[in-house]
Amino acid sequence: MNDNLFIVVFAAAIYYGTPLVYAALGEILAERSGVINLGVEGMILLGAVGGCWVATTVDGPAGIVLPLAVIVSMLFAAAGALIHAFLTITLRVNQIISGLALTIFAGVAGVSSYLAGLWDLGRAPIANQFGRMDLFGWGDLPVLGPILFNQTLLTYLSWLLVVLTSIYIFRTRWGLQLRAVGESPQTADSVGVAVQRSRYLHVLVGGAFAGIAGACFSLSILPTWQNGMTLGQGWIALALVIFGFWRPDLMLVGAYLFGGLSSLRYTLQARGVEIPQLFLDSLPYVMTIVVLVVVSNTAARRQLGAPAALGKPYEREER
Amino acid sequence: MGSQASHSRRRFRTAGVLSVAVLAVVGLVATACSSSDSDSSSVVKAAWIYVGPTNDGGWTQAHDNGRKFAETELGSNVKTTYKENVKEAEVAPVIEDLVKDGNTIIFATSYGYAEPMAAAAAKYPDVKFEQATGDLITAGKATPANYAEYWGAGEDTLYLSGIAAGKATKNNKIGIEAPFAIPEIIRHLNAFVLGAQSVNPAATAKVVWTNDWFNPTAEKQAAESLVSAGVDVIFSHQDSPAAGEVAKANNLPWVGYDSDQSGAYSSVWLTTATYNWGPRYLSRINAVNDNTWKSDNYYGTIADGFTTLATFGNLVSADTKTLIDAELTKAKNAGATSINIRPVVAAFGWFWSLSDRQDQTGAVKITKGQTLSQKDLYEMNWFVKGIDGTLKN
Question: What is the 3-state secondary structure (H, E, C) of chain B?
Fold first, then answer.
């Protein structure tokens, strides 16, 4: 391991920021369509348990088992998202309540832990896991090598997804429709955009992304299952959406900032740097609160990019 | 049209609210359910309360293995039940439920359950309340006669694990990650480092606090930070095997805690302290059965089989194994079963006063040959010399 503090911290920032990137990217899609999903934490756990289940029970080469595990992670989490979509889009339940219920339902005292018990997961580390991978042989480059090109395949994939999602949201017709649905569903509807279908689609895809975040935990960070192993990372992902002003690129920066800070407190401790622990521990949350205060003002929020119809169910009759 | 629409909206909303409620309830019930519920007055009904899931591969699993041991031994003479994932702050109603279900002995297995357990004991004198890792009795607080505490000398086996670590380190820097700077953990880390120094006086340890009993991400980050700071052996006093992953990735020897990982991490595993709760559970249920149950403050030892060492890993040399086994045998023969509060003598904690023990500043805290009491151990709030770490979380 390279011992340079700068390199250690930046490499950790990206590694531990990656699950946040996936979860927040998914939430950006859902919120851009006008649906807040507070079930992120629960969906990540569903994804983590699904992926771990495949990796534990399926024998085979990593090239087959791991992609399959990630796909199942996505399906599990999307199944959770489907519940939220049905409740909030079709039944028009309050989005906050439904999202919280999803996190309770799927979370540490819920279905994810139940399934893990049923399948007896977590007895041992899984054989196939996403380890560090030297991308293009660039891992030996000075400074940038260990930071950028000695990450896991999941990290490289997340970069691709961030770029593609950005292009999708801001540079395509479908992205324009998505933003219209989130800004003014009535207008979108009047020009023939299927509002409900668009919301379903983006909540489901958002859930699938949260599932990959779960795979980061159970197939790479631990890598095995432990009940409630995410310990609130889903909530940080929710804050990152606001932190990044609903933009994938800014969110990525925020996610790495959180990843880096969460690791920095231990790195400094181990090197005997005397910084009050509580200060470092609270820093990510202080940053979040600052951003939340800034965007709590409606005018500011509009300027920063919050979808205008966020949190509001769409009912055609009210047109 | 308008009223019909609003009617259907209302119907939708009702259906929605109902589904949300069902969703939440199903989720909560899914893991909170317990094993057996049949009612029979001739058998002892015993209940356990766990802070984690029964498959955590560590603390709670060890307790649940103890429950199963008692169940197997007693067969139809006992009906056992358990509640898992019970938060410390939410234990009181769980205890009430278990009493109402007719359980006559209740075992609670997390430190924070102690106060509510003692309160319930005062309220229900006919039920026996057993608290693991509590310190109300040791601290001299008044507790009801139907309230007992049990725990054990994990520090003894951690001292022996420290020998393996002291032998394994080449640069004399051992990295330790641990949850909180509380006496129980401080005692364990001191014992571990004293063990390392007993075979390698130059051994030092760097401590990083994770501020969590269980948090795989933080545990992994803490272990990585220790590696990047240059340690060449890792000891993780945590509930997940995350540090083992870091040890494996960096090919460094690893001492875990409370869980035998010799199989899964054979390439890096040294050993650690593990606990055997079964005999305690068996004897206490038997005592209820034949009306001989009395409050006590049990502190299990190597001698009575409560604490023992996990299987040695491949990295432990034959010489080191012989050395540790010799110490283990000495401890085993040193005394019989544990009894109520007593000084730390031959039966456990033999190592504390083998020589003068200094704290981080060099001040002597234990003199050679001094006899410590269990209370001294329970209130230990200083690090031995050679530990590099703050006592603040």
Answer: CHHHHHHHHHHHHHHHHHHHHHHHHHHHHHHHCCCCCCCCCCCEEEEEECCCCCCCCCHHHHHHHHHHHHHHHHHHHEEEEEECCCCHHHHHHHHHHHHHCCCCEEEECCHHHHHHHHHHHHHCCCCEEEEECCCCCCCCCCCCCCEEEEEECHHHHHHHHHHHHHHHCCCCEEEEEECCCCHHHHHHHHHHHHHHHHHCCCCEEEEEECCCCCCHHHHHHHHHHHHHCCCCEEEECCCCCHHHHHHHHHCCCEECCCCCCCCCCCCCECCCEEECCHHHHHHHHHHHHCCCCCCCEEEECCCCCCEEECCCCCCCCHHHHHHHHHHHHHHHHCCCCCCCCCEECCCCCCCCCCCCEEECCCCEEECCCCCEEHHHHHCCCCCECCEECCCCC
Q: Are B238 and B230 in contact (CB under 8 A)?
A: no
Residue of chain A with shortest Cα separation from B15: A91
- What separation in angstroms does the CA of A188 have from each of A39, A116, A175, A199? 26, 42, 12, 12
Residue whose token pair is 């009050």: A276
Which residues on B lie below 8 Å from A114 (Cβ)? 30-31
Query: Which residues, including other chains, have CB under 8 Å from residue B67's CB and lie 6 or more apart?
Result: B46, B48, B80, B82, B107, B281
Burial of residue A190, with CB atoms counted within 10 A of its CB: 0-12 exposed, 13-18 middle, 19 or more buried: exposed
Q: What is the identity of the amino acid at B355?
A: S
Per-residue pLDDT, B335:
56
Check CB contact of B314 with chain A, cutoff 8 Å. no
pLDDT of B111: 86
- Lowest pLDDT segment from A3-17, A57-71, A81-95: A3-17
Q: What distance in Å separates residue A308's CA from the closest CA in chain B?
A: 23
Longest Cα separation, chain B: 92
CATH code assigned to A3-302: 1.10.3470
DSSP A55-117: HHH--S-HHHHHHHHHHHHHHHHHHHHHHHHIIIIIS---HHHHHHHHHHHHSTTSHHHHHHH
What's the whole-number average pLDDT of chain B? 87
Cα Rg of chain B (Å, integer): 24
Q: Please, are residues A246 and A32 in contact by the beta-carbon 8 Å criterion?
A: yes
Tokens 């279905």 belong to A111
Could you tell me what percent of chain A has a pLDDT over 70?
A: 97
**B contact residues 2-41, partner A, Cβ 8 Å cutoff:** 5, 9, 12-13, 15-17, 19-21, 23-24, 26-28, 30-32
Are B63 and B277 in contact by the 8 Å Cβ rule? The answer is yes
Decide if pLDDT at B316 tops 80: yes
Q: What residue in B sits closest to A221 (Cα-Cα)?
A: B217
Q: Is B24–A101 a contact, with Cβ atoms under 8 angstroms apart?
A: yes
Minimum mean pLDDT range among A188-192, B22-26, B80-84, B190-194? B22-26
Could you give the CA distance from residue B336 to residue B36 in angstroms, rounded to a whole number? 35
pLDDT greater than 60 at residue B324: yes
Q: Is B53 on the interface with A (CB under 8 A)?
A: yes
Tell me: ipTM over 0.95. Answer: no
